[in-house]
Specification:
This is CocE/NonD family hydrolase. It contains 14 helices and 31 strands. By secondary structure, the chain is of the alpha+beta class. A ten-stranded mixed β-sheet has the order 1-2-4-3-5-6-9-10-13-14, sandwiched between helices. Strands 17, 18, 19, 22, 25, 28, 29 and 30 form an eight-stranded antiparallel β-sheet that branches. The protein is globular, with a radius of gyration of 26 Å. Bound molecules: D-phenylglycine.
Length: 628
């Protein structure tokens, strides 16, 4: 109903004018909000911020499901900088180098038209429509370079997380004006090791994200909870499927797809972006940015690096950066993460010395070739940046240096000597009624606002777990020499369960000396440098869940996330093994059921777990050791 339909009072007119015109002459930028038509007619809401006086400026484009208006109006100001603080904006680089900043609502979200599909698969068996995020990016870039006279016709795509998935999509049949892509902490394979599952164990705390992201175009339906401690919330509903049903999530298409595909079937494998890009020609210089303690997408960047680096025949098209960061911390303050200190602002170093010259080389007319190594990696422990020619530096197969087996040994010892004698196994009771918390309770929700510490959980002190009787711990002697690793540890666990399914969580931990003079609170700290979970039913294949033979020693082999770390002299190496990581991951009922999303209360059974370390049943971690 417009104003004219309401009674008018000429002697007492409205105080609000019919068309207010903001006065922006003093601003140092010009804002244009446009709806860009895609090839199927759908219009995508796009915010364009142009530095005043810009001429032949490069365009830095982010496409997002997280509200373009919000991301371009962080602090309403006449200056571009405050407008662009916050998520996805490497503001110092974008503003100081005079780029035109473009942020667009992806199809189906916020100000854009069309239907939303989570991480919309590229056109093909999973997406029969003629449009996807690749075509939408192509059409957007085509419009931008034809309709922004202040630009030099060069576009770079950049973004973090979901917004890091978008630069990867821009690489599929890329527009000729796309000169560079910077996917940071990208969502790549939701089942294998990014946001939805890790090796098949479901990251159920992300249900709140699925709910809010999928239930409406503007995320106006908000998740709720009756519990301060998320441990209690998820215990109350027993299974993720029951929680989803209770919250009405069976109305949500993506949730129903998720619960219908608990295994790594074609629904997941065909949309894995590393596999999509492996089948594409490499046409656009790409810098993959990875966080060594990425609590959300620790799999994606390195998976894409493995997929596309072999195509980089020039050696200059694909760069990898690995920083000591949580998810997205590269655009924030980077001198510490939780209790861990790095001695310098590593994030600012990245933006100033790596990101800025890399973008300039491709987006600024006449800019020099950036002097950036193929791999720029921060070495934790020694706290310094490295220029490397390749990654990883050691691995089980195919590297110059072969990983070394670090054995679990009797008497809870850990070492490079294969076990020979002593007790054959350790055992613990895994009780689904009392799952191991993945961090100290009360467990907070995921998120970054209101003082939440979700971003830090990968560097929490693991002493919280090591004292539990349902966590078995192995520890080395005190190191007298540095122990340097540079690659992905691989777990080879020989274990049995009295049940017919089981999860295995393995953590590689740096144990600090009992006293640390320069940082007393780090005395005895147990810092996980690499850890992950594996759902036992997938032992024979991620697409082939099978019951486990009960009480039979079986080998479980799985990758842990990459580490670039030095265990310093005076430190010890520790390995922890447990069978739940709750409530971030859903509980394994420990009896084989067709679909754990819909396990019933009676399915959840205690199990006796055994970890073997005898000569013929040796458990070990293939450790990517270098310099020994
Ligand atoms: N990767 C982030 C996320 C996705 C899905 C669930 C929770 C977090 C992100 O895009 O922010």
């Amino acid at each position: 109903m417009d104003d004219t339909s309401k009674p008018q009072y000429p002697n007492y007119p409205s105080e609000t004018p019919a068309h207010f015109k903001p006065v922006t002459e003093s601003f140092d930028y010009v804002e244009r909000d446009v709806d860009i038509p895609m090839r199927d007619g759908v219009k995508l809401h796009t915010v364009i911020l142009i530095p005043k006086g810009a001429h032949h400026a490069g365009i830095v484009l982010t496409r997002t499901p997280y509200d373009a208006k919000e991301l371009t109006h962080h602090v309403m100001s006449g200056h571009l900088g405050p407008m662009l603080e916050g998520y996805d904006n490497a503001t110092d680089v974008i503003v100081e180098d005079g780029y035109i900043r473009v942020i667009q609502d992806i199809r189906g979200k916020y100000g854009s038209e069309g239907d939303y599909v989570m991480n919309r698969p590229v056109h093909g068996p999973l997406n029969p429509t003629p449009v996807d995020d690749a075509t939408d990016t192509y059409d957007t870039i085509d419009w931008l370079v034809k309709n922004i006279p202040e630009s030099n016709g060069k576009v770079g795509t950049i973004g973090i997380s979901y917004d890091g998935f978008e630069p990867l999509m821009s690489l599929v049949n890329p527009h000729p004006a796309l000169k560079v892509a910077v996917p940071m902490n990208p969502m790549v394979d939701g089942w294998m090791g990014d946001d939805w599952f890790h090796h098949g164990a479901f990251r159920q705390q992300n249900m709140s994200y699925i709910y809010e992201q999928s239930a409406s175009r503007d995320n106006s339906y908000k998740w709720w909870t009756d519990y301060h401690d998320e441990y209690d919330l998820f215990m109350h509903y027993v299974s993720a499927g029951e929680l989803g049903r209770a919250y009405g999530m069976e109305q949500l298409g993506f949730w129903n797809k998720m619960t219908a595909h608990p295994a790594y079937d074609s629904f997941w494998s065909e949309q894995a972006v590393d596999k999509v890009l492996a089948a594409q020609p490499l046409k656009v210089p790409t810098m993959l940015v990875h966080s060594l303690w990425d609590q959300e997408d620790i799999y994606g960047a390195l998976a894409v690096y493995r997929a596309i680096k072999p195509k980089d025949t020039s050696g200059d098209m694909v760069k990898l950066v690995m920083g000591p960061w949580h998810h997205g911390q590269e655009i924030d303050e980077g001198s510490s993460l939780g209790a861990i200190q790095f001695g310098s602002d590593t994030a600012k170093y990245f933006r100033e010395h790596i990101l800025r010259p890399f973008l300039a080389q491709y987006l600024k007319d006449g800019a020099p070739k950036a002097d950036i190594a193929p791999v720029t990696a921060f070495q934790t422990g020694t706290n310094h940046w490295q220029r490397l020619s390749h990654w990883p530096l050691a691995c089980e197969d195919g590297c110059n240096v072969k990983s070394r087996p670090l054995y679990l040994e009797p008497d809870n010892k850990l070492g490079f000597q294969a076990p020979n004698g002593g007790n054959a196994y350790d055992q613990y009771i895994s009780d689904p009624a009392h799952p191991v918390p993945f961090r100290a309770r009360p467990i907070q929700p995921i998120g970054y606002d209101n003082g939440l510490t979700w971003s830090q959980w990968l560097v929490d002190d693991q002493r919280e777990a090591s004292g539990r009787t349902d966590v078995v711990t192995y520890v080395s002697d005190v190191l007298t020499q540095p122990l340097t690793i540079a690659g992905a540890p691989v777990v080879h666990l020989v274990a049995s369960t009295s049940g017919t399914d089981s999860d295995w969580v393995v953590k590689l931990i740096d144990v600090y000396p009992d006293q640390v003079a320069e940082q007393p609170e780090m005395g005895g700290y147990q810092l996980a440098v690499s850890m992950d979970i594996f759902r036992g039913r997938y032992r024979e294949g991620f697409d082939n869940p099978k019951p486990l033979a009960d009480n039979q020693p079986l080998t479980f082999r799985f990758d842990l996330p990459a580490a670039n770390h030095v265990f310093l002299p005076g430190h010890r190496v520790m390995v922890q093994v447990q069978s739940s990581w709750f409530p971030l991951y859903d509980r394994n009922p420990q009896t084989f059921v067709p679909n754990i999303f819909f396990a019933k209360p009676g399915d959840y059974q205690k199990a006796t777990q055994r970890i073997y370390h005898s000569a013929d049943q040796a458990s070990y971690i293939a450790l990517p050791v270098i310099g020994q």
